[in-house]
Amino acid sequence: MRNIWAIFKKEVKTYFTSPIAYVVITVFMVLVGFFFYSLIWWFNSQSLQMARNPYYLQQLNINQMVYAPLFHNISIVLLLMLPLLTMRLFSEEIKIKTDELLYTSPLSVGEIILGKYFASLFVLLVMLFLSGILSIFTFVHGNPEIAPILIGYLGLFLMGAAFIAVGIFFSSLTENQIVSAILTFGALLLFWILNWASYSAGGAWKDILNYLSFFQHFDDMTKGILDTSDLIYYLSFAFFGLFLTHSVIQSRRWR
Amino acid sequence: MIKVEHLTKKYGDLIAIQDLSFEVEKGKIWGLLGPNAAGKTTTMRILTGYLPATEGKASVAGYDVFEAPKEVKKVTGYLPENLPIYPEMTVESYLKFVSEIKQIPQPKRKQSLEKAIEISGLQPVRKRLIRNISRGFKQRVGIAQALIHSPQVLILDEPTIGLDPAQIIEIRKLIKSLKGERTIILSTHILAEVTQTCDGVVIINEGKLMASGSIEELTASFRDKEGVFLKVKKGGLETFYLLKGIKGVENVTQEADGFKIEWSKGNDIRDELIKMIAQKDLGLLEMRPLAMNIEDLYLKAISGGMER
Known about the structure:
The complex is a heterodimer. By secondary structure, chain A is mostly helical. Chain A has 14 helices and no strands. In chain A, helix 1 (2-17) packs across helix 7, helix 9 packs parallel to helix 14 and helix 11 (194-200) runs antiparallel to helix 12 (203-212). Chain A is globular and about 70 Å long. Chain B is α/β, with parallel strands linked by helices. Chain B has 2 domains: 2-220, P-loop containing nucleotide triphosphate hydrolases (Rossmann fold), CATH 3.40.50.300; 224-290, YebC, transcriptional regulation domain (Alpha-Beta Plaits), CATH 3.30.70.980. Chain B is built from 11 helices and 14 strands. Chain B has helices at residues 40-47, 69-75, 91-101, 106-120, 135-147, 165-178, 191-197, 215-222, 237-244, 270-280, 294-302, and strands at residues 2-11, 14-24, 29-33, 55-60, 63-64, 76-79, 153-157, 183-187, 200-205, 208-214, 225-232, 249-255, 258-264, 284-289. In chain B, strand 1 and strand 2 (14-24) form a beta hairpin. In chain B, helix 3 packs across helix 4 and helix 4 runs antiparallel to helix 5. Chain B is elongated, with a radius of gyration of 24 Å. Classes of the chains: A mainly alpha, B alpha/beta. Chain A binds chain B through residues 2-3, 6-7, 9-10, 13-14, 17-18, 96-108, 253-255, and chain B through 11-12, 45, 48-52, 70-71, 73-74, 76, 78, 80, 82-89, 93, 97-98, 100-103, 145.
């Protein structure tokens, strides 16, 4: 645990002493802020229109009309941003040969991977926390339900955790950070849109493709539905990514 | 302290080292010599647990490198050829990070850090970013990270590469000052470094052991002739013939400032030589044994002339 903590601290420090974390967080906040503002503005205009009709007014729901689409938008922004956060984790070590220091120190490969993984998760938490501050506005001026919002954020965190694991895996494959980021982005996008293929597939394939898609599991959570199968999906996805990273690093040394 | 037995490492079809065996005693400094791609770095990487060997055994401080890698890593300090430094960190924060991953207990960390900074002479740059310090200081940071946990064994891959002459002398002094407490293996291309700092050498070529032992031992076992360099006041042709006439002398070569006199091993003629110089009143200025220098030893070894 002490070793994981040492790696975690070093990685977090690297994120915040270089421009990476600041650039990623700033761009993320600008985009999320823009989406939030647009959705609120749209919700507001809808409210004004529907105010004339009490029946429609009852149908107005800020959770469904603002938060559900907001979570979808944030997830896309994460899909674009997180590969930039993970691309250097191992690629940089391989390139500047600092991996020799790590692997000749009394640390296990697992501890190194987890230290780096938790550091990226920490930056993700900071991003989600900052975006959550925007909600103060809706709570002051409206009456949204808090549980679906928290479930939506949990969904974003779990999905981000899976994204980061995929990013770490591709980072362990190459010393080129750009290649690592592009591969991560491509893989994540593929898993995102996998359910599109399910439209044309039939039988068991339809279910398999649907199950594997990020989108399908996330959709429920944006609506405030918490299903253990979704939790298991994201956690096993993250675990699998980290496991593959471990295998890649070990096999490189045994080659 | 360091024992390598029949070590072989293959990268696919490429054999990096083959059936390598040698031993280094506690408290000694040994040089690992060989041309580029001879397998020096691979040997060091195996000893430090960075790479697994394909066959054979290696142990450091009594721990098997393959069975107890964590123990070996705890007692070994390693300076790789490419310095494992993070340019965006300050010298101090980097060494602090190293002290943590080398598992120095918390109460001792500060003291170890200060000691490493002091020994390596990093005081003037301790607060600076590593990217902004000179090559010489970067090399010292590399040495400091290898030393910080007071390891019993130090493995230094080309410790003086890329340094200016003054820095080379300082680093050599530093390495020599560590002798006794620690067992050190260093690889180098600078042969003078070996004679100045090492007690023994392991010479490898194309992954195979060509020679190993103390420098004196190797020189003695290699030479089939002994000899002296002689400088006298009367250094003409007459003297040349006089020297050649001494019984047992096999070869005399006249050089610009004296003579090289050689005889077969074990057939020392120095007594006769001195008597003759006195008798003929040649005026002795200098007489010193002809030593086989490290360059000769190295070239002979890598060409296979000392294979054993």
